[in-house]
Amino acid sequence: MSVEEYRRQLAALAEATARRNADLLATERAYHDGAATATAELVRAEAMAGAAARRAAALTASVAEVDREASRIWSALRAMHRRRPGWAARVGDPPEPLLPQSADLGYPDQSVPEARALALLGRASRRISQAGRGAPRPAPPRRVLPLLPVVGAAAAAFTALFAAGLVTLGGGYTTTQLVLRTAGWSVFFVAPFTGLPLAAALLDRLFGSRLDIGAIGLLVLGGMAAASGISIALAH
User: Fold this and answer.
1) How does pLDDT run across 90-128, given as a tens digit for each residue?
2) Where in the chain are the domains?
3) DSSP string, the chain
């Protein structure tokens, strides 16, 4: 073997050794990177599991609170009507909870806020408590008072237009036309007051309150203004 050939073999050996060391270094680096990624994924999974456990515990506590409040309200309802024969038997036991279901998985939908259920139960409890004590319902909230004339005016305007249509149809002197004209004027005279039942129903449903003297005055004032305006407009 010549010296030149020996040198070539040494160079090839050195190159192979360097390549092997580079491959070992890359393999070790990839191993450490994979281990770090796996550790990060494990930490994130543990954090998500902890958050899910806390969410489940909070939901369990909320459901238990809602169930207790519903049971108390149901018992109060049965006790309030105990004097009526057979009423408690007709009311029966509290119904089973009906949970909204997810369209995809069939699991209870957790997007419904718990505060809504508690608010509904609280309103029902107040209504039953007031009925049991015979206490009057509260007056309308102050923030809705400016809207009452608008409700009265809208109801009166619709009624007045309907009455004007009846009067127009009853423009002749036949029996039917006289009946229509009389009905139209009668409806027109009660038009300013037609907002009262609508407002009473809305206040009872939304706020559990009743119409007081001031609220009735605002409704009738708005209704009279609308009816007068329509009467003047039709007169011209």
Assistant:
1) 555 665 665 554 444 444 444 445 566 666 666 666 666
2) 3-133, 142-235
3) --HHHHHHHHHHHHHHHHHHHHHHHHHHHHHHHHHHHHHHHHHHHHHHHHHHHHHHHHHHHHHHHHHHHHHHHHHHHHHHTTTSTTHHHHH-SPPPP-PPBPTTT--B-TTS-HHHHHHHHHHHHHHHHHHHHTPPPPPPPGGGGGGHHHHHHHHHHHHHHHHHHHHHHT-SSSHHHHHHHHHHHHHHHHGGGTHHHHHHHHHHHHHS----HHHHHHHHHHHHHHHHHHHHHHH-
